[in-house]
Amino acid sequence: MSLQAYIDGVGVLGPGIADWPSAARMLGDGGRYTPAAAVLPAPAILPAAERRRTGRVVKLAIAIALEATAQAGVEPGRLASVFSSSGGDGHNCHEICLALAAADREMSPTRFANSVHNAASGYWSIAVGSMQASSVLSAYDASFTAALLDALAQIAVDRQPLLLVAYDTEYPPPLHAKRPIPDAFGVALVLAAARSEKTIARIDAALGEEAEERLADGGLEALRTAIPAARSLPLLRALANPKPSRAVIDYLDTLRLRVEVLPCA
Amino acid sequence: MTPLLLKALTATSCIGAGLAQTLASLRAQLSGLRRCDFETVELDTHIGAVAGIDALALPYEWRRYDCRNNRLAEFALRQDGFCDAVHDAAARYGPRRVGVFLGTSTAGILQTELAYRQRDPLTGTLPEAFDYRCTHNSFSVVEYVRRRLRLDGPAAAVSAACASSAKAFAAGRRMIEAGVVDAALVGGVDSLCLTTLYGFHSLQLLATAPCRPFDVARDGLSIGEAAAFALLERVPQNLASDAVLLAGAGESNDAHHMSAPHPQGRGAQLAMQAALSAASLDPGAIDYINLHGTGTPSNDRAESGAVSGVFGSTVPCSSTKGATGHTLGAAGALEAVISALCLQNGLLPGGAQTVEVDPGLAVHYITRNRHAHARRVLSNSFGFGGANCSLIFSTAG
User: What is the ipTM of this complex?
Assistant: First the structure.
């Protein structure tokens, strides 16, 4: 089994990473990574009523999705999508569990509506008016790879361009002790079945059991293992490389996804 | 799309553990909804609880995964020889070539709700024994089923609210068609918890009496729980006469509102049309529609508009949620299995609990069972966030 796609756009946001160009510099030869708290922009694209209700997960997902679709030069509302996150909005979950542990069990309807794992997908579809199918996944630490595999299968079967958005944000205490995600990290890709003038690389992916790929930079390697969506960093490193290269990304147990990356720019 | 075979099936809900009990309840038009006595919940509503979960123990090896949601999965897996069918597929294709794609909306969040009541009074920390990964996380039930059945292939939880497990069928189908796997264990598991009971209560969407989908006096939904599984494989040359196929899957988004359907059901129409297109069928080819039919005034109105817009007003349709309750992330899979039972047994199930069909809803809603040969059934599942999925099942003949 080998699955192919063309990458037409990338969006990245994380601790000390503002966007894809800065991530590409850090991941390239001689790049330097300086950790700093992730800064998430307000989603100006959302109607005011929805914007007031969104938490960090939705802000993150919308920011990276906008960066990737702008780079690809596509109308975002026309794209099918795959959204993936280990556990969605930990802050919202914390507030709900606090409310349910209190005597009156009074729950906010907005918190309940936002508790669905597909909240980011729902707000994105409202923001860009997309009625296209949206797959919404979780595979714990392997959530990015599960999304990439689903996206590649969709490209193979449906031959339509699509948007992948993988994102995780920190959990507050006391949940944090059980799921110590320290900050926000997200990656978005626009994938297509055919090459276009926007294409930056062609990828060929296959399941395998090779050793996991660690990043040379200690800070980036710590980031890779700390936030599930950052398991994508080896692929981003290969996409930033002007030469053909291979990335190995973690999946389930000993399974890996081996991705051959051929730059097209 | 290329049709796929439902090689094995099972479902467990408040109307029965396994296919035989489920079919018997449908034939008798029984409802499993009872007055809510779940945990410490004090809400004036009815629920569809599965009996016997509290006493069930997971295999010792997998005790870390112990929670209501995984017990429900385990209980369902033990019915209808389903584990044997999966082991057989793993033996034929190899455990790396069998994927697991299961829908859930809340997984084992009940464990976290209980853990928050037991926070350390001084430090606020959660109990030592609480295991987030194996119980609460959306992937926990997928990981449990995958480990329990010793499968090594691709896997993901599909979590798009009440469309989750219908979309899991679509996800598994893609993986087979793309050649990533040869078989896909698809389905859904969702169990009772306080988040959904008090959450739907906060939105004033819970019915007091058992829910009455499409009734003129409908006033909300009743929450249920279920686990339902199917094993998808490519269609072999020789098919049994009662074999059921997944013939089409269609997905869409409302792009309208987080917790309310589009008033005219535009997204729902797109999903049904996409499923028909995938199955290369005209609307007239559908013999029965298993509606999403939650029993809330707005859902049933929007769905009625969407169904009549695509199919007109003559196709028999009903919601089985008056019998099972709304099993949320498991509803799509449960109703997929019910759709297969309809095809195999020539049964169009009348909607339980519904007394007087709302004359304002322009669909042919049936309240009594019909015995009719059905060759193709469409099942709808819609969820918060505007997620929609329609599946079409057909007989092999």
Answer: 0.98
CB contact under 8 A, B202 and A107: yes
User: For position A61, which CATH number holds?
Assistant: 3.40.47.10
A contact test, residue of B38, B118, B138, B147 with most A CBs within 10 A: B138
Alpha-carbon distance of A231 to A187, in angstroms, equals: 10
DSSP B51: T
| H-assigned helices in chain B | 19-27, 68-77, 82-93, 109-117, 140-148, 164-177, 194-202, 266-278, 297-311, 321-324, 331-345
Task: Please list the pLDDT of chain A residue by residue as tens digits (265 residues).
Answer: 799 999 999 999 999 999 999 999 999 988 899 999 999 998 989 888 888 888 999 999 999 999 999 999 999 999 999 999 999 999 999 999 999 999 999 999 999 999 999 999 999 999 999 999 999 999 999 999 999 999 999 999 999 999 999 999 999 999 999 999 999 999 999 999 999 999 999 999 999 999 999 999 999 999 999 999 999 999 999 999 999 999 999 999 999 999 999 999 7
pLDDT in tens, B345-361: 999 999 999 999 999 99
Decide if A131 and B266 are in contact by the 8 Å CB cutoff. yes
Torsion angles phi and psi, residue A221, rounded to 5: -65, -40
| Separate counts of helices (H) and strands (E) for chain B | 11, 17
Closest B-chain CA to A129:
B255
Give backbone dihedrals phi and psi of A204, rounded to 5 degrees, phi first. Answer: -125, 120
Residue A51 sits at the chain B interface (C-beta within 8 Å): no
Q: Which CATH superfamily is domain B4-395 in?
A: Thiolase/Chalcone synthase (3.40.47.10)
Q: How far apart are CA A171 and CA B119, in angstroms?
A: 16
- For residue B397, is pLDDT > 80? no
Listed by number, the residues of chain A in 196-255 with a beta carbon closer than 8 Å to a beta carbon of chain B are 207, 251-253, 255
Q: What is the pLDDT of residue A52?
A: 83
A22 near A212, Cβ under 8 Å? no
> So where are chain B's domains?
4-395
The answer to whether A193 faces chain B, any CB pair under 8 Å, is: no
Catalytic site positions of B: 162, 292, 326
* Planar angle of CA B286, B165, B299, nearest 5 degrees: 65
The partner residue sitting opposite B194, judged by closest CB among A53, A100, A179, is A100
Residues of A in contact with B1 (CB under 8 A): 157
Smallest Cβ distance to A138: which of B109, B159, B199?
B159
Partner residue opposite A135 with nearest CB, options B167, B178, B259 = B167
Structure tokens at B183: 């078989």
CB pairs under 8 A between A and B: 215
Question: β-pairing, B244-253 with B387-395?
Answer: antiparallel
B315 in Cβ contact with B287 (< 8 Å): yes
Whose structure tokens read 């035989």?
B20
| Helix A20-27 and helix A56-72, axial crossing angle in degrees, nearest 10 | 80
